[in-house]
Specification:
Elements (H helix, E strand, L loop, with lengths): L1 H23 L18 E7 L7 E3 L24 E9 L5 E11 L11 E10 L3 E10 L1 H13 L4 E9 L1 E3 L6 E8 L5 E14 L3 E12 L11 H4 L2
Antiparallel strand pairs: 1-11, 2-3, 3-4, 4-5, 5-6, 6-8, 6-9, 7-10, 9-10, 10-11
Amino acid sequence: MKYLLALTIGLLTGVALFVAGLVYNPLFSKASLSPLAVTDSQTITLGYPAVATETIVTTNDGESRTKPHPEKVLQLWEAPIRQTSVMAALLWDGRNRAAGFGIKVSSTSEKTRLLNGQAIVDSIWYVYLPGRGSLFIEQTENYWNYLRDIVLPARRSSSNTWRGTWLGNLSIGPGALGTAKVSGGSGEFRGLEMLAVELLSVRTWHADHGVIAGEGQLVIELPSETSIEFETDEEEQL
């Protein structure tokens, strides 16, 4: 009996050490600085709500902690799209003024390897800015830092809630510097190839509802040779 007890304790200790090593492994980097944070090129910043109830529509398989909004929206429960979520929201600029409309489609990637610190999501954005044109954004995202820094602490909390200030860079590709690929679709952006990153800011997260307070942000770098004439983020700060 004592050998069985010792074996059980040993197994539990091993599991605990494994989980601790996985969560606190120094080889898994913290949220990194955005590659565009030090760019000399002009950028466009577009904000969007990270809270489902603040979007126009959010839908998924209906079993996610982020509940579809509005309640009667069709859910993506069919097998081929069960791992997919769709969100449509109004976008705002650097001065919190209405700037346009965006649709994001995300799918859990088969490349996810939690043991390697990779919680991979493939996503695309369609962005329409009235009077300017449209953009198509393709990217790969890694939510490992988000899971480690927010979701796991919330799960360990007696209230199932995390509160704080968290800002993370989600984009890790397909660009060589970990940036998203942006293609101009129409208007002033037609024919342009650009880079972008997506950032997420969270202040409150609950295990049953997901993000309760937070915002997302798209930062798009314009080509250095572009001749587009509109108010960029640099001009807005003057």
